[in-house]
Design a protein that fits this description.
The complex is a heterodimer of chains A (121) and B (173). Chain A has 121 residues and is mainly α. Chain A has two domains: 2-75, Winged helix-like DNA-binding domain superfamily/Winged helix DNA-binding domain (Arc Repressor Mutant, subunit A, Orthogonal Bundle); 77-121. Chain A has helices at residues 2-16, 19-30, 35-41, 46-58, 77-120; strands spanning 33-34, 62-67, 70-75. Chain A is rod-shaped, with a radius of gyration of 26 Å. Chain B has five helices and eight strands, in the order H-E-E-H-H-E-E-E-E-E-E-H-H. Chain B is globular. Classes of the chains: A mainly alpha (121), B alpha+beta (173). At the A-B interface, helix 5 of A face strand 1, strand 2, helix 2, helix 3 and helix 4 of B.
């Protein structure tokens, strides 16, 4: 876990060490954009922008999705972290619900066994 | 793993939660009982209300109405100290005894999620899969975002703390 975090921090800092990439993040903070739009905005070639986006993507700072011929970029990590946190909490709620359900089920099982015995007697 | 599970004294079964796609959220859990018993615990109000709101949630079920048949409605009212804080309702759109239950969740602003529960019995155990299908990616995103930020009832924050406390004491029974 710690190692994972450290590796991710390294990737994040490396990704953020470049002015263009910081600019891209800022831009995506305002709105999602395609690689083409980003390349135009930062006066770069498509290939150059693809590389920058690739680095950001690897660091988990940006996610991209290709629809048809257009690859759209959006901010990634915060969303993902929030989502993970939510899912964890949701899972905890259900786990604690199901632990209660276990008790009810166990009781019903016992009850059926007793009832079954009574019927046979 | 299954063999080990059987030889150990009643280990706790794991609950998993996964976002399967943009619109789907899936929760799974195995229960040490036949599907019939698990199904009844979901469909008989007197059993359902005993587990749906764990004590640790800090809430109670004030009302638990469920008319479990196709087209039948359900309504759950949650309260804290006797006053209502939340209400959920919807209707059953599929009821197959001991194997499948499908219902709508209508408390949302627009169309809510459709919940499908399946009960799969294997060797005296039942695998329960709860599948929520949201009307759109935005609907599920919204749910996730609101929960992560501030939309979740305060009680659920307390739940986190309490669960940690409870975590230390489970397995004693």
């Amino acid at each position: 876990m710690v190692q994972y975090t450290t590796a991710r921090l390294d990737a994040s800092f490396a990704a953020l060490s470049d002015a263009t990439r910081r600019g891209v993040l800022e831009q995506l903070g305002r709105e999602d954009a395609s690689i083409t739009e980003l390349a135009q905005k930062f006066h770069m070639t498509l290939t150059g922008m693809k590389k920058h986006v690739g680095v950001l993507e690897q660091a988990g700072l940006v996610t991209t999705e290709k629809v048809g011929r257009v690859r759209t970029c959006k901010l990634g990590p915060r969303r993902l972290e929030e989502e993970t946190a939510w899912i964890e909490r949701y899972c905890q709620l259900w786990a604690s619900r199901f632990d209660e359900l276990d008790k009810v089920i166990e009781e019903q099982k016992q009850k059926e066994m007793v009832d079954g015995r009574k019927k046979r007697e | 793993m299954d063999a080990r599970r059987e030889s150990e004294p009643a280990p706790k079964n794991r609950t998993t939660t996964e976002r399967k796609s943009d619109r789907e959220l899936v929760v799974t859990r195995t229960f040490n009982a036949p599907a019939r018993i698990v199904f009844e615990a979901w469909t008989k109000p007197e059993l359902f209300k005993r587990w749906w709101v764990p004590k640790s949630m800090g809430m109670s079920l004030l009302t638990c109405e469920m008319d479990v048949r196709v087209g039948g409605k359900y309504r759950l009212v949650f309260g804290v100290g006797g006053s209502k804080v939340m209400e959920v309702f919807g209707k059953y759109i599929e009821v197959t005894p001991h194997s499948r239950l499908v219902w709508t969740n209508e408390e949302g602003d627009e169309g809510g999620a459709i919940t499908t529960l399946t009960f799969e019995e294997k060797g005296g155990q039942t695998l329960l899969v709860k599948h929520d299908l949201y009307p759109s990616k935005e609907a599920l995103d919204g749910e996730l975002a609101s929960g992560a930020a501030d939309g979740m009832p305060e009680q659920l924050d307390q739940l986190d703390e309490l669960l940690v406390t409870l975590g230390g004491s489970v397995g004693r029974s």
